[in-house]
C-alpha cells in the first residue's frame, strides 16, 4: 500500500473484454495482456488499465516508491512493446524479454522542514500529516506544527496526482540555543552570512524544489555564501545528531 493506503496489483488476461469495477477494458492484442489495478483503502476499484503487444505479455510485480510513482515489472514475447513514446525491443530471439516501467511523474525530492522558535514549517503542499518519533500526531494536518517535546519530527506532504513525499527527519531539542544559527541579511540580494557559536559537522542548502545546491563541512563562526537565483532556500546544518533548518530568501 502507498502512503494513502491505496493498494496496487498486477495480473494478466487472455480475455477479449475484462470488466473491473466500473471499467470495461478491451484487450486489443492477441494472447495475454497485462492488467494494472488500483484499489481504495476500502477495497473499491479506483482505476484499472490494460496494455500489451502482438504476443503474450505478463505482469509479475508492482511497487510504489516513497513519492507515489508506480513501478511495474514483467516480461513480453513479441519483437517490440510500446509504452507511450518508448519502444522496447526483444533481443532474446524466441525467448521472452523483461520490461520495467514507471507510471507517474511525482517529484522525488524530500521536503525540508524549517523552524522559527517552536513552530515547525513544511513546504507548500495540498495537505500534510505530521509524525513525532515515527508515530502519527492526530490532528496535525496543517503546514505549521507547534513543537514542544524533544524528539524527532517528520511530515508527509501530499500533492496533486496522488503524489507525496516524507520529509527529512528534524530533531527538535527543547534547549536549542536561539542563536544556534543566524542568517543575515535575510532577505538578501544574493550575498548572506551564516553565523553560529557551534561547530556544525556539515551545512547543506536546498532550493524550493528540494534540490541540493551547496554543501560544506565543518562550519564554525561566520561564513559567507552567494546565491544568484531569486527564490526561497532552506539551510540545513548538522550538529552532532541534530539538524537545524532555517529559511533564507533571495530577491
In short:
The protein is mainly beta and 251 residues long. It is 0% helix and 57% strand. It is elongated and about 70 Å long.
Explain what the structure shows:
The protein is 0% helix and 57% strand. The model has no long low-confidence stretch (mean pLDDT 89). The protein has 2 domains: 7-103, no CATH class; 114-250, Immunoglobulins (Immunoglobulin-like), CATH 2.60.40. Strands 13, 14, 16, 17 and 18 form a 5-stranded antiparallel beta sheet that branches. Strands 19, 20, 21, 22 and 23 form a 5-stranded antiparallel beta sheet that branches. By secondary structure, it is an all-beta fold. It has strands at residues 7-13, 17-20, 23-26, 33-39, 45-51, 57-64, 70-76, 80-83, 86-89, 97-103, 114-116, 119-121, 127-132, 135-136, 144-146, 151-158, 164-166, 170-172, 182-184, 191-206, 212-226, 231-239, 242-250. The protein is elongated. The chain contains no helices and 23 strands.
> What ranges have pLDDT less than 50 throughout 5 or more consecutive residues?
none
Largest sheet: 5 strands, antiparallel
**Superfamily at the CATH H level of the largest domain?**
Immunoglobulins
Average pLDDT: 89
Strand content: over 45%
Examine the coordinates and then state which fold CATH places here, giving the name of the CATH topology of the largest domain. Answer: Immunoglobulin-like
User: Domains counted in the coordinates: how many?
Assistant: 2
Shape: elongated
Instruction: Please provide the ordered H/E string of secondary-structure elements.
Output: EEEEEEEEEEEEEEEEEEEEEEE
Q: Look at the helices and sheets and give the structural class.
A: mainly beta
Query: Tally of extended strands?
Result: 23
CATH class category label of the largest domain: Mainly Beta
The span between the termini is: 42 Å
Amino acid at each position: 500500500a502507498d502512503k494513502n493506503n491505496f493498494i496496487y496489483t498486477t495480473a494478466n488476461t487472455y480475455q477479449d473484454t475484462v470488466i473491473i469495477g466500473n471499467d470495461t477494458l478491451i484487450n486489443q492484442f492477441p494472447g495475454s495482456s497485462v492488467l494494472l489495478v488500483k484499489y481504495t483503502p476500502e477495497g473499491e476499484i479506483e482505476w484499472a488499465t490494460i496494455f500489451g503487444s502482438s504476443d503474450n505479455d505478463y505482469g509479475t510485480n508492482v511497487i510504489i516508491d516513497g513519492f507515489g510513482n508506480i513501478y511495474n515489472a514483467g516480461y513480453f514475447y513479441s519483437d517490440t512493446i510500446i509504452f507511450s513514446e518508448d519502444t522496447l525491443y526483444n533481443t532474446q530471439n524466441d525467448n521472452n524479454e523483461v520490461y520495467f516501467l514507471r507510471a507517474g511523474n511525482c517529484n522525488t525530492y524530500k521536503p525540508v522542514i524549517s523552524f522559527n522558535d517552536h513552530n515547525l514549517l513544511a513546504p507548500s503542499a495540498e495537505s500534510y500529516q505530521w509524525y513525532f518519533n515515527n508515530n502519527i500526531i492526530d490532528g496535525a494536518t496543517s503546514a505549521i506544527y507547534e513543537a514542544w517535546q524533544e524528539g524527532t519530527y517528520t511530515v508527509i506532504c501530499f500533492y496533486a496526482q496522488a503524489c507525496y513525499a516524507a520529509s527529512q527527519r528534524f530533531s527538535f531539542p527543547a534547549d536549542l540555543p536561539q542563536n544556534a544559527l543566524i542568517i543575515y541579511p535575510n532577505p538578501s540580494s544574493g550575498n548572506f552570512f551564516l553565523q553560529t557559536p557551534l561547530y556544525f559537522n556539515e551545512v547543506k542548502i536546498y532550493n524550493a524544489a528540494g534540490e541540493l545546491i551547496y554543501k560544506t563541512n565543518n562550519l564554525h563562526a561566520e561564513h559567507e555564501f552567494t546565491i544568484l537565483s531569486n527564490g526561497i532556500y532552506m539551510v540545513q546544518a548538522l550538529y552532532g545528531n541534530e539538524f537545524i533548518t532555517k529559511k533564507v530568501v533571495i530577491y
